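User: Can you predict the 3D structure for this chain?
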Amino acid sequence: MNYGIIMAGGRGERFWPLSNEAHPKQLIAITSEKSMLQITIDRIVNFIPIENLKLVTGENIRDSILEKCPRIKPDNMLCEPTGRNTCLAIGLAAIHLNQSDPDGVMVVLSADHLINPATKLISIIKAGTKIAAKEDKLLTIGIVPTRAETGYGYIEISDDQWNVDGVSVCKVSAFKEKPRPTIAQEYYYDRKHLWNSGMFIWSVKAILKAFEQHMPEMYGQLIEYATNIDTDNELAARAKLYEEAEPISIDVAILEQADNVLTMKGDFIWDDIGSWLSLERFMETDKEHNVVRGEAIMLDSYESTVYNNGDGIIATIGVSDLVVVRSGDVVMVVHKTKLDRIKDLLVMFRKDEKLKKYL
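Assistant: Here is the predicted structure, written as structure tokens:
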């Protein structure tokens, strides 16, 4: 049977102040009138029924998810006591499925991706689950680049390629870190590199075997935890697991080490909605190339993003290359080149008791 695993953790700090600890990015409407998590759920239930979905998310936003996503029930959720990166999150989902359906196939998705059209993704997922059900393979979905992007990791594909139900499947030669601009240009033009989307398909058996081979310590911790599933001690055992396990990504821990990794080419529109700069890639701009959402008036202002989530108005005069966001009691103004400093700003907020209420 096929299962959807939606990675819905994280604090979404790069979208502060619209995104905050109580309502992180995946729970707010950025790309449409629905939250990004709800869009992800709507997309995958066209192939995997709602009862076979598992959301791996933070305990701190459990109630918010149940409130904002009415189709999601407590049984759909695996709550993490704290974030420990993607390897442990995927391991948690796999070890739970191993208890109920060890022959199952996992489709691992992220809650914050823009995908269009969804039908193309579903076609790839169908082909991938067919492969994963029969073969000991770890499959990734690689996106055909549409620009020389420096913000994504890349997958280098080999010349060994074939089709499964009209989907191009390739052996993976290597995983590449986020490149410098000149290298990104090379990747874009050589047609041998795909964006690493962070979407995966594999059987429960295949991924647990990979844990045993490449992350033996974490595998042992997961096996120990599994003895407590469906007992009164489950949550205490999970807390212990998360306290002791290594925080590491699935890419670094397993995919970069394994020799049975395949990738399937995705030729649909895809974007990892990672920061305020993402908006200018999919939202309409005015004649001065500004992105404006909510009430705003701009005079002699160029190539800026203005997002007003309040009842009043934002007015700008003579500005350029800025991101201006108003949400609740917070107004943030930041130059586009300094957006990566939002996390530094939030560290300052956490150190000041008077400012913590804005997080």
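DSSP finds eleven helices and 17 strands in the chain. The mean pLDDT is 94.
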